[in-house]
Design a protein that fits this description.
Family: Belongs to the dus family.
Number of domains: 2
Order of helices and strands: EEEHEHHEHEHHEHEHEHEHHHHH
Radius of gyration: 20 Å
CATH superfamily of the largest domain: Aldolase class I
CATH topology of the largest domain: TIM Barrel
Strand content: 5-15%
Number of helices: 14
Keywords: Flavoprotein, FMN, NADP, Nucleotide-binding, Oxidoreductase, RNA-binding, tRNA processing, tRNA-binding
Catalytic activity: a 5,6-dihydrouridine in tRNA + NADP(+) = a uridine in tRNA + NADPH + H(+); a 5,6-dihydrouridine in tRNA + NAD(+) = a uridine in tRNA + NADH + H(+)
Structural class: alpha/beta
Pfam families: Dus (PF01207)
Largest sheet: 8 strands, parallel
Function: Catalyzes the synthesis of 5,6-dihydrouridine (D), a modified base found in the D-loop of most tRNAs, via the reduction of the C5-C6 double bond in target uridines.
CATH class of the largest domain: Alpha Beta
Number of strands: 10
Protein backbone atom coordinates (compact mmCIF):
# COMPACT_ATOMS: atom_id res chain seq x y z
CA UNK A 1 0.00 0.00 0.00
CA UNK A 2 1.28 3.43 -0.91
CA UNK A 3 0.34 6.88 0.33
CA UNK A 4 1.63 8.94 -2.58
CA UNK A 5 5.28 7.78 -2.78
CA UNK A 6 5.43 6.28 0.71
CA UNK A 7 5.43 2.49 0.41
CA UNK A 8 4.10 0.83 3.58
CA UNK A 9 4.16 -2.76 2.34
CA UNK A 10 1.44 -5.34 1.86
CA UNK A 11 -0.33 -5.40 5.24
CA UNK A 12 0.51 -2.09 6.94
CA UNK A 13 -0.18 -1.82 10.66
CA UNK A 14 -0.13 1.74 11.96
CA UNK A 15 0.06 3.27 15.44
CA UNK A 16 -2.92 5.59 15.94
CA UNK A 17 -2.41 9.18 17.07
CA UNK A 18 -3.37 9.45 20.75
CA UNK A 19 -3.11 12.44 23.04
CA UNK A 20 -0.76 11.93 26.01
CA UNK A 21 0.24 8.54 24.57
CA UNK A 22 2.08 8.74 21.25
CA UNK A 23 5.07 10.76 22.42
CA UNK A 24 8.47 10.22 20.75
CA UNK A 25 9.54 7.44 23.11
CA UNK A 26 6.37 5.39 22.65
CA UNK A 27 6.39 5.92 18.89
CA UNK A 28 9.95 4.61 18.66
CA UNK A 29 9.11 1.62 20.82
CA UNK A 30 6.11 0.67 18.67
CA UNK A 31 8.20 1.23 15.55
CA UNK A 32 10.78 -1.17 16.94
CA UNK A 33 8.08 -3.81 17.42
CA UNK A 34 6.89 -3.50 13.82
CA UNK A 35 4.54 -0.53 13.42
CA UNK A 36 4.78 0.48 9.76
CA UNK A 37 3.90 4.12 10.41
CA UNK A 38 3.45 6.16 13.58
CA UNK A 39 1.54 9.35 14.35
CA UNK A 40 2.22 12.14 16.81
CA UNK A 41 -0.20 13.26 19.46
CA UNK A 42 -2.66 15.68 17.91
CA UNK A 43 -1.53 19.27 17.61
CA UNK A 44 -3.84 22.26 18.19
CA UNK A 45 -3.62 24.62 15.22
CA UNK A 46 -4.61 27.55 17.44
CA UNK A 47 -1.83 26.82 19.93
CA UNK A 48 0.70 26.17 17.19
CA UNK A 49 0.28 29.51 15.45
CA UNK A 50 0.53 31.21 18.86
CA UNK A 51 3.89 29.46 19.36
CA UNK A 52 2.82 27.70 22.56
CA UNK A 53 5.95 25.87 23.67
CA UNK A 54 4.28 22.64 24.78
CA UNK A 55 2.50 22.40 21.44
CA UNK A 56 5.63 23.15 19.42
CA UNK A 57 7.39 20.29 21.23
CA UNK A 58 4.89 17.86 19.65
CA UNK A 59 6.49 18.59 16.28
CA UNK A 60 9.75 16.94 17.40
CA UNK A 61 10.23 13.88 15.22
CA UNK A 62 13.30 11.80 14.39
CA UNK A 63 14.47 9.96 11.31
CA UNK A 64 14.41 6.70 13.30
CA UNK A 65 10.62 6.76 13.47
CA UNK A 66 9.94 7.42 9.77
CA UNK A 67 7.54 7.24 8.13
CA UNK A 68 5.86 9.50 10.67
CA UNK A 69 2.75 11.67 10.45
CA UNK A 70 1.98 14.84 12.40
CA UNK A 71 -1.71 15.33 13.10
CA UNK A 72 -3.40 18.72 13.53
CA UNK A 73 -6.89 19.81 14.50
CA UNK A 74 -8.85 23.04 14.51
CA UNK A 75 -12.03 24.68 13.25
CA UNK A 76 -10.80 27.78 11.40
CA UNK A 77 -9.58 27.47 7.81
CA UNK A 78 -6.92 30.18 7.85
CA UNK A 79 -5.55 28.94 11.17
CA UNK A 80 -5.37 25.34 9.93
CA UNK A 81 -3.57 26.45 6.76
CA UNK A 82 -1.02 28.45 8.75
CA UNK A 83 -0.52 25.54 11.15
CA UNK A 84 -0.11 23.13 8.23
CA UNK A 85 2.70 25.27 6.80
CA UNK A 86 4.44 25.32 10.19
CA UNK A 87 4.09 21.53 10.41
CA UNK A 88 5.54 21.08 6.94
CA UNK A 89 8.72 22.79 8.12
CA UNK A 90 9.12 20.03 10.74
CA UNK A 91 9.48 17.61 7.79
CA UNK A 92 7.00 14.86 8.62
CA UNK A 93 6.27 12.34 5.90
CA UNK A 94 2.54 13.02 6.14
CA UNK A 95 0.25 15.72 7.53
CA UNK A 96 -2.94 14.24 9.00
CA UNK A 97 -6.08 16.21 9.80
CA UNK A 98 -8.06 15.14 12.86
CA UNK A 99 -11.80 15.14 12.21
CA UNK A 100 -12.38 12.27 14.63
CA UNK A 101 -11.50 13.25 18.21
CA UNK A 102 -14.76 12.92 20.18
CA UNK A 103 -13.80 14.52 23.51
CA UNK A 104 -15.88 17.47 24.62
CA UNK A 105 -13.09 20.03 24.84
CA UNK A 106 -12.33 19.40 21.13
CA UNK A 107 -15.55 18.22 19.45
CA UNK A 108 -17.72 20.43 21.64
CA UNK A 109 -15.95 23.46 20.20
CA UNK A 110 -16.50 22.36 16.61
CA UNK A 111 -13.08 20.81 15.95
CA UNK A 112 -12.19 17.11 15.69
CA UNK A 113 -15.35 15.03 15.36
CA UNK A 114 -17.31 18.25 15.86
CA UNK A 115 -16.67 18.91 12.16
CA UNK A 116 -19.07 16.05 11.38
CA UNK A 117 -21.82 18.58 12.12
CA UNK A 118 -20.41 21.08 9.64
CA UNK A 119 -19.43 19.19 6.49
CA UNK A 120 -19.03 22.27 4.26
CA UNK A 121 -16.45 23.68 6.69
CA UNK A 122 -14.71 20.28 6.97
CA UNK A 123 -14.35 20.13 3.19
CA UNK A 124 -13.22 23.76 3.01
CA UNK A 125 -10.46 23.14 5.56
CA UNK A 126 -9.39 19.89 3.90
CA UNK A 127 -9.12 21.45 0.45
CA UNK A 128 -7.28 24.52 1.75
CA UNK A 129 -4.74 22.47 3.72
CA UNK A 130 -4.16 20.03 0.85
CA UNK A 131 -3.50 22.98 -1.46
CA UNK A 132 -1.22 24.77 1.02
CA UNK A 133 1.49 22.12 1.49
CA UNK A 134 3.54 19.84 -0.73
CA UNK A 135 3.61 16.80 1.59
CA UNK A 136 0.73 14.28 1.43
CA UNK A 137 -2.34 15.30 3.43
CA UNK A 138 -4.57 12.61 4.96
CA UNK A 139 -7.72 12.70 7.09
CA UNK A 140 -8.89 10.67 10.09
CA UNK A 141 -12.60 10.77 10.93
CA UNK A 142 -15.57 8.69 12.15
CA UNK A 143 -18.70 7.14 10.67
CA UNK A 144 -20.74 10.23 11.48
CA UNK A 145 -22.04 12.29 14.38
CA UNK A 146 -24.51 9.71 15.73
CA UNK A 147 -26.41 6.56 14.76
CA UNK A 148 -28.89 8.55 12.66
CA UNK A 149 -26.16 10.33 10.72
CA UNK A 150 -23.68 7.73 9.48
CA UNK A 151 -22.53 9.74 6.47
CA UNK A 152 -19.08 8.28 5.89
CA UNK A 153 -19.74 6.62 2.50
CA UNK A 154 -20.65 9.92 0.80
CA UNK A 155 -18.24 11.94 2.95
CA UNK A 156 -15.30 9.76 1.92
CA UNK A 157 -15.82 10.65 -1.74
CA UNK A 158 -16.12 14.34 -0.89
CA UNK A 159 -12.89 14.27 1.13
CA UNK A 160 -11.12 12.44 -1.69
CA UNK A 161 -12.22 15.18 -4.08
CA UNK A 162 -10.49 17.71 -1.79
CA UNK A 163 -7.12 16.19 -2.66
CA UNK A 164 -6.28 13.96 0.30
CA UNK A 165 -3.88 11.07 -0.18
CA UNK A 166 -5.53 8.56 2.21
CA UNK A 167 -8.47 8.30 4.61
CA UNK A 168 -8.59 6.67 8.04
CA UNK A 169 -12.01 5.74 9.39
CA UNK A 170 -12.72 4.92 13.04
CA UNK A 171 -15.70 2.57 13.06
CA UNK A 172 -17.71 4.51 15.64
CA UNK A 173 -19.82 7.66 15.64
CA UNK A 174 -18.93 10.66 17.75
CA UNK A 175 -21.88 9.88 20.03
CA UNK A 176 -20.39 6.47 20.79
CA UNK A 177 -17.09 7.99 21.94
CA UNK A 178 -15.11 4.79 22.67
CA UNK A 179 -18.05 2.66 23.83
CA UNK A 180 -19.80 -0.22 22.11
CA UNK A 181 -18.25 -2.13 19.25
CA UNK A 182 -16.60 -0.55 16.23
CA UNK A 183 -18.69 -1.14 13.10
CA UNK A 184 -16.43 -2.07 10.20
CA UNK A 185 -19.23 -2.71 7.68
CA UNK A 186 -19.31 0.91 6.57
CA UNK A 187 -15.50 1.03 6.45
CA UNK A 188 -15.72 -1.91 4.05
CA UNK A 189 -18.40 -0.13 2.06
CA UNK A 190 -16.16 2.89 1.62
CA UNK A 191 -13.23 0.68 0.56
CA UNK A 192 -15.39 -1.22 -1.95
CA UNK A 193 -16.88 1.93 -3.48
CA UNK A 194 -15.54 1.84 -7.08
CA UNK A 195 -15.24 5.62 -7.05
CA UNK A 196 -12.68 5.54 -4.21
CA UNK A 197 -9.10 5.36 -5.43
CA UNK A 198 -7.12 6.49 -2.36
CA UNK A 199 -6.06 4.08 0.41
CA UNK A 200 -8.63 3.42 3.13
CA UNK A 201 -7.31 2.68 6.62
CA UNK A 202 -9.55 1.02 9.21
CA UNK A 203 -9.44 1.78 12.93
CA UNK A 204 -11.32 0.52 15.97
CA UNK A 205 -11.16 -2.56 18.20
CA UNK A 206 -8.18 -4.21 16.50
CA UNK A 207 -6.99 -6.00 19.62
CA UNK A 208 -5.69 -9.36 18.38
CA UNK A 209 -3.64 -10.67 15.45
CA UNK A 210 -6.64 -12.69 14.28
CA UNK A 211 -8.88 -9.62 14.23
CA UNK A 212 -6.24 -7.70 12.32
CA UNK A 213 -6.19 -10.35 9.57
CA UNK A 214 -9.98 -10.48 9.50
CA UNK A 215 -10.14 -6.73 8.90
CA UNK A 216 -7.86 -7.05 5.88
CA UNK A 217 -9.59 -10.15 4.50
CA UNK A 218 -13.23 -9.32 5.20
CA UNK A 219 -13.33 -5.58 4.61
CA UNK A 220 -10.50 -5.17 2.12
CA UNK A 221 -8.90 -2.19 3.83
CA UNK A 222 -5.47 -1.09 2.69
CA UNK A 223 -4.12 -0.76 6.24
CA UNK A 224 -5.24 -1.07 9.84
CA UNK A 225 -4.56 1.24 12.75
CA UNK A 226 -4.09 0.14 16.36
CA UNK A 227 -4.80 2.56 19.19
CA UNK A 228 -5.86 1.68 22.72
CA UNK A 229 -4.83 -1.97 22.34
CA UNK A 230 -1.22 -0.78 22.42
CA UNK A 231 -1.56 0.63 25.97
CA UNK A 232 0.79 -1.39 28.13
CA UNK A 233 1.22 -3.75 25.18
CA UNK A 234 3.43 -2.17 22.52
CA UNK A 235 4.49 -5.67 21.53
CA UNK A 236 1.05 -6.12 19.90
CA UNK A 237 2.66 -4.89 16.67
CA UNK A 238 5.18 -7.74 16.84
CA UNK A 239 2.38 -10.27 17.36
CA UNK A 240 0.16 -8.84 14.62
CA UNK A 241 2.90 -8.53 12.01
CA UNK A 242 4.06 -12.11 12.64
CA UNK A 243 0.51 -13.43 12.18
CA UNK A 244 -0.10 -11.40 9.02
CA UNK A 245 3.18 -12.56 7.49
CA UNK A 246 3.03 -16.25 8.46
CA UNK A 247 -0.61 -17.04 9.23
CA UNK A 248 0.53 -18.45 12.56
CA UNK A 249 0.62 -17.11 16.08
CA UNK A 250 4.14 -16.36 17.25
CA UNK A 251 5.48 -18.33 20.22
CA UNK A 252 4.23 -16.75 23.45
CA UNK A 253 6.37 -13.93 24.77
CA UNK A 254 7.43 -14.59 28.35
CA UNK A 255 5.97 -12.56 31.20
CA UNK A 256 9.51 -11.61 32.20
CA UNK A 257 10.18 -10.25 28.69
CA UNK A 258 6.95 -8.21 28.77
CA UNK A 259 7.72 -6.82 32.20
CA UNK A 260 11.12 -5.70 30.91
CA UNK A 261 9.34 -3.88 28.07
CA UNK A 262 7.21 -2.06 30.64
CA UNK A 263 10.40 -1.16 32.52
CA UNK A 264 11.71 0.34 29.29
CA UNK A 265 8.50 2.34 28.97
CA UNK A 266 9.05 3.71 32.45
CA UNK A 267 12.69 4.58 31.71
CA UNK A 268 11.81 6.25 28.41
CA UNK A 269 8.98 8.24 29.96
CA UNK A 270 11.13 9.45 32.86
CA UNK A 271 13.94 10.37 30.47
CA UNK A 272 11.54 12.34 28.26
CA UNK A 273 9.89 14.21 31.14
CA UNK A 274 11.24 13.78 34.68
CA UNK A 275 10.71 11.14 37.37
CA UNK A 276 7.43 12.45 38.80
CA UNK A 277 5.77 13.39 35.51
CA UNK A 278 7.21 10.39 33.68
CA UNK A 279 5.70 7.94 36.14
CA UNK A 280 2.36 9.75 36.03
CA UNK A 281 2.48 9.60 32.25
CA UNK A 282 3.14 5.86 32.10
CA UNK A 283 0.44 4.89 34.61
CA UNK A 284 -2.25 4.48 31.95
CA UNK A 285 -0.04 1.88 30.26
CA UNK A 286 0.50 0.00 33.50
CA UNK A 287 -3.21 0.16 34.31
CA UNK A 288 -4.22 -1.21 30.90
CA UNK A 289 -1.50 -3.81 30.42
CA UNK A 290 -2.89 -7.33 29.88
CA UNK A 291 0.27 -8.67 31.57
CA UNK A 292 -1.31 -8.27 35.00
CA UNK A 293 -4.72 -9.74 34.17
CA UNK A 294 -5.48 -13.01 35.86
CA UNK A 295 -2.90 -12.69 38.64
CA UNK A 296 -4.72 -13.89 41.78
CA UNK A 297 -5.15 -11.48 44.70
CA UNK A 298 -3.53 -8.71 42.66
CA UNK A 299 -5.75 -5.82 43.73
CA UNK A 300 -3.54 -4.40 46.49
CA UNK A 301 -0.38 -4.79 44.39
CA UNK A 302 -2.11 -3.07 41.48
CA UNK A 303 -3.14 -0.12 43.66
CA UNK A 304 0.41 0.18 45.01
CA UNK A 305 1.84 0.05 41.47
CA UNK A 306 -0.44 2.83 40.27
CA UNK A 307 0.32 4.96 43.32
CA UNK A 308 4.10 4.62 43.11
CA UNK A 309 5.81 7.98 42.72
CA UNK A 310 9.45 6.97 42.22
CA UNK A 311 11.24 4.51 39.95
CA UNK A 312 12.74 2.82 43.00
CA UNK A 313 9.30 2.21 44.49
CA UNK A 314 7.84 1.07 41.18
CA UNK A 315 10.68 -1.32 40.40
CA UNK A 316 10.45 -2.81 43.88
CA UNK A 317 6.81 -3.63 43.12
CA UNK A 318 7.79 -5.06 39.73
CA UNK A 319 10.16 -7.43 41.55
CA UNK A 320 7.28 -8.62 43.69
CA UNK A 321 5.16 -9.08 40.57
CA UNK A 322 7.90 -11.22 38.99
CA UNK A 323 7.32 -13.76 41.74
CA UNK A 324 3.62 -13.93 40.82
CA UNK A 325 3.80 -14.31 37.05
Amino acid sequence: MKIKDIDLGKYPVLLAPMEDVTDPAFRLMCKGFGADMVYTEFVSSDALIRSVSKTEQKLNISDEERPVAIQIYGKDTDTMVEAARIVEQARPDILDINFGCPVKRVAGKGAGAGMLQNIPKMLEITRAVADAVKIPVTVKTRLGWDAGNKIIVDLAEQLQDCGIAALTIHGRTRAQMYTGEADWTLIGEVKNNPRMHIPVIGNGDVTTPQRAKECFDRYGVDAIMIGRASFGRPWIFKEVKHYLETGEEMPPLSAEWKLNVLRREVEDSVKLLDERRGILHVRRHLAASPLFKGIPNFRDTRIAMLRAETKEELYRIFKEIEKLI
